[in-house]
Amino acid sequence: MWLNGRPVLVVRDGDKFYGMDAVCAHMGCAILSEVHGTTAVCPAHGAKYDVKTGQMIEPPQVKPDVPCEQEEIRVPLRTYKVSVGSDGLLDVE
Name one Pfam family in it (predicted). Predict the structure, then answer.
């Protein structure tokens, strides 16, 4: 999903939803799409993030063969409040 021009990852954990910026903080070069529970994994360098807090819980493994073109993003990644609206759609704040 996109919010204000930024990709946002939304994850369901039981009956709760969590939202977080979906761009890896290491060089900002990868979209976070692989999720295990509430942990998002960077496909480029393997950094892991807690979707609930935006904190990096495992640092990246630098791979010189995977180019990155953007500058580094600060952690924690921005998180968003996510709720189910009366229409059944997700509301992201």
Answer: Rieske
CA–CA distance, 71 with 77 (Å, rounded to integer): 14
CB 47 within 8 A of CB 58: yes
| Inter-residue contact 60 to 48 (CB < 8 Å) | no
Question: What are the DSSP calls for 28-73, one per residue?
Answer: T--B--EEETTEEE-TTT--EEETTT--EEE-----TTS---S---
> H/E element holding 14?
none
What single-letter amino acid sits at 29? C
Question: Between 79 and 74, where is the model more confident?
Answer: 79
> Above 90 in pLDDT, residue 71?
no
Instruction: Sketch out the chain's domains with CATH numbers.
Output: 2-87 (2.102.10.10)
Contact 49, 32 (CB under 8 A): yes
